[in-house]
Amino acid sequence: MAEKVSLKLNNSKWKRFFSVPCALVDDYIRLADESALKLILYLMCDESDEIDKFEVCKKLGIRESNFDDAVAFWKEMGVIESDSVKTVQAVEMKAPEASPAPATNVKVRLNYTPKSIAEMIDTDESVKELFSEAERTIGRLLKHAEQELLINLRDYYGFDTQSIILILEYCRDCGRTSAKAVENFAAELFQNGITGFFEIDAEIKRRTEYNTFENEVRRALFLETKPTAKQSQYISSWQEMGFSVEMIGEARERCVNQTNKLSFPYINKILQSWSEKRIFTREMLEADEANRTKSAAQNERKQNNSSFDLNEFDSFTLSQSHSNK
Predict the structure, then answer these.
(1) Closest CA to 39 of 80, 95, 96
(2) Cβ neighbours of residue 159 under 8 Å, at least 6 residues apart?
(3) Angle at which helices 264-276 and 229-241 cross, to 10°
(4) Of 121, 273, 279, 316, which has the maximum CB count within 10 A?
(5) Distance (Å, rounded) from C-alpha 32 to C-alpha 69?
(6) Are 221 and 252 in contact (CB under 8 A)?
(7) Which residues contact 96 (CB under 8 A, 6 or more apart)?
(8) Confidence (pLDDT) at 226
(9) Which neighbouring-strand residues pair with 82?
(10) What per-residue confidence (pLDDT) applies to 324?
């Protein structure tokens, strides 16, 4: 049985009004995302011919990229006209002749009801296959939010089925399979231009190798908690320099011996000095220290041999004096 809720606006809260076409609710509200709805309501209320993109984004609380997507969406729907991103003018909103669908060249983040997803499973074999693969990957049935996300990973972000499964496998291995965690990782890949299967595979391998390296370094440094963002930057730079966990542990020993505490900046200075000398193994370090010890000893002997001996000089001058007599 449908649940009926009584809602009434408190008109005393509003100082002025503007008209909103019924078509916004009847035909577009399901397709438009939050940014698109904010923008169209702003345009309906604003009476100026031109708007400042930066100011509008600040006022609406949206990113500039979301602003551009919203403009593209409403232009595609024929609701607004725009000669440039900075000049946007609202036009009469007319109901479309048929139920509109997002244009192929415009990506729109959509929400789906359980009923609509069920219909997609029945009519679209690729969706059914995607859900089956995803459930096998994470080892359980998908929730509605996860089904909705997978469709958007394909249609909004543009990932193919194999790439989506690869993303799910990585999130599963990291112990983060919630819809939010998966989308955060997918969005990060997308924003960095990593969208192809082989590109995603390479990025996942890079992250996996770093995570393993970071955990080993954390143990070598006797860190009991996860490294901070700054500490992770140091660890990442040490990996890029080419240092092994063993050499980082050696630098840690020298740091503690000198300062009586663990200092990432101090360890970093040690490793940078070794990097400048192209010292990356314990054998190379021992050879360098042996050479420096040998050079120091040679220098000391040279100084001793060339030093002025006053007693010898006195003996020499006395003997010379007696012989002259």
Answers:
(1) 80
(2) 153, 167, 186, 195, 200
(3) 10
(4) 279
(5) 10
(6) yes
(7) 27, 77, 78
(8) 87
(9) 88
(10) 54
Other CB atoms within a 10 A radius of the CB of residue 154 amount to 17
Alpha carbon of 134 to those of 122, 131, 166, 182: distances in Å? 17, 5, 10, 12
Classified as helix, coil or strand, 72 is helix
d(CA 116, CA 223): 50
Quote the pTM value: 0.52
Residue 311 tokens read as 């007693």
To which residue do tokens 């790439």 refer? 163
Contact of 51 with 40, CB cutoff 8 Å: no
Span 260-282, mean pLDDT? 93
* Amino acid at residue number 173: D
Helices 64-76 and 53-60 meet at what angle, rounded to 10?
100
Q: How far apart are CA 37 and CA 189, in angstroms?
A: 27
Contact 110, 102 (CB under 8 A): yes
Please name the helix (run of DSSP H) or strand (run of DSSP E) that holds residue 149, with its range, or none.
helix 144-155
Token pair belonging to 221: 């440094």
- Nearest-5° Cα angle at 72, 71 to 76: 115
Higher pLDDT, 313 or 171: 171
State the burial class of residue 168 (Cβ atoms within 10 Å of its Cβ: 0-12, 13-18, 19+). Answer: buried
Distance CA 293, CA 146 (A): 64
Instruction: Go through the chain and tell me how many residues it has.
Output: 325
Angle at the Cα of 185 from the Cα atoms of 142 and 128, rounded to 5 degrees = 30
Q: Which residues of 170-209 are buried (b: 16+ CB within 10 A; e: fewer)?
A: bbeeeeebebeebbebbeebbeeebeeeeebeebbeeeee
Instruction: Give backbone dihedrals phi and psi of 90, rounded to 5 degrees, phi first.
Output: -75, 145
Taking residues 98-106, what's their average pLDDT?
46
The amino acid that residue 312 corresponds to is E
Give rounded-to-5 percent helix, strand, coil for the chain: 65, 5, 35
Average pLDDT, the chain: 81
Q: Exposed, middle or buried, 32 (CB in 10 Å: 0-12/13-18/19+)?
A: buried
